[in-house]
Amino acid sequence: MKRKYIFILAVVIALFSSCSDDFFETYPATQITTPEVYSSVDNIDAVLNAAIRYLMEETPIQANPGLPALFLTHEVMGEDAFARDGRYGFRDSYPYRDPFDNTTTRCRFFWYLQYTSINHANNVIANVDEAGGTKFKYLKGQAYALRAFNYLNLVRQYQFTYIKDATAMAVPIYTEPTTPSTVPQGISTVQEVYDQVISDLKEAERLLPGFERTIKNRPDINVVYGLLARAYLTQEKWQLAADYAAKASIGYPIMTPQQYTEGFSDVSNPEWIWGHPQTRTQNRGGYSYLSYIETTPYTTDANGTNLYYGYNAIMPDPHFIALFEPNDIRRSLFDIATQPAEALYRHYRYRKFRNKYPDHDGHIVLMRSSEMALIEAESKARLHDVAGAVNVLNELRVKRNLSELSTSVYNESQIIDEILLERRKELWGEGFRLYDILRLQTVPVRLET
């Protein structure tokens, strides 16, 4: 028997609106405004590095591993993942309480995390003079990209999709550094927030050509193209979305079937356009993103030494495996514990994500070429270019051990359905599911388990 969980957006927005007045105040970052801090490239680079690490690693409580907590919340608010009862972290996300109910810690955390990151970016933008030279220009461009990334997440998270109502009130916009005495801004419309996102990304697009990063967590021109593709996809500006998605993936070939099975924990993966590397000394340990989503159970080695793997807190829905064709390399990552003595007895385990041990320093994926291919394919299909959409989708399918689809078999509606299904399969666990539900104005159906 089916249990249909209807995702009523009005209820979600009402929950968000129920947050207390001080919920809408931003949490200012520690002010670093003395002129000498911004007088050298090295100092500014250190400020920007701290801003990025803060966004990815800030952990006020164990169950909020930085921005990846948002990714995990978005996954369990869909139909293809669930939060195990009695495990750390995301039980309140499954019934749609996070991040909109201010009785949960995650509600306030998401708000101040992203606005603090915005304030870090605002400090760099306000204090860096791009006329100081190419390196100053590159740092300012990265700050614009970081600010746009946060506002794009916020506007998609806290309001109906752009196409439904661009005049709806969304979130406040801050473009100058704030202090504890700053007068709070009023709430801006969806249109105003998207205008700010596009403006920031266009500035980054102007400033970043030629920038060659040494660490993949820095937003470069490909990342900017990818963020523009995401924004234009949600705005249904299909040609722009397709064009920028194609540009974003240049130089980042889709990973092979073998590479797909290697654990999604290393930025050296050729298709990772943007990712956050963690090190032995700079990671959240057992609090990390991968600790929550990895399904390898705790175990011991032959010497009895504890091998701490995942909490198994977030699992694939038992029906999720049915979406995959038999030869799909991704299907091979599923197994099921069949013996009562086994950990996770009668649960499907999906080994897409595996942390790095013993230091829990697995890397965090933020943008991949596969996502860009799916944006390009969907955009082409909605522009009535079915053949073009099929060709792009096939580039991904063959890298997942699947046969190519024929352009003569699918009409526009059918190929769009195939692409949207592929998004669910390919991007599972990476934080896109809630955004897609809102963007497409669909109803997730959770089946009886």
TrEMBL record:
Residues 346-439 form the RagB/SusD domain. Keywords: Cell outer membrane, Membrane, Signal. InterPro entries: SusD-like_N, SusD_RagB_dom, TPR-like_helical_dom_sf. CDD domains: SusD (cd08977). One of its GO terms (cellular component) is cell outer membrane. Pfam families: SusD-like_3 (PF14322), SusD_RagB (PF07980). SUPFAM superfamilies: TPR-like. Residues 96-233 form the SusD-like N-terminal domain. It is found in: Cell outer membrane. This is RagB/SusD family nutrient uptake outer membrane protein. It comes from termite gut metagenome.
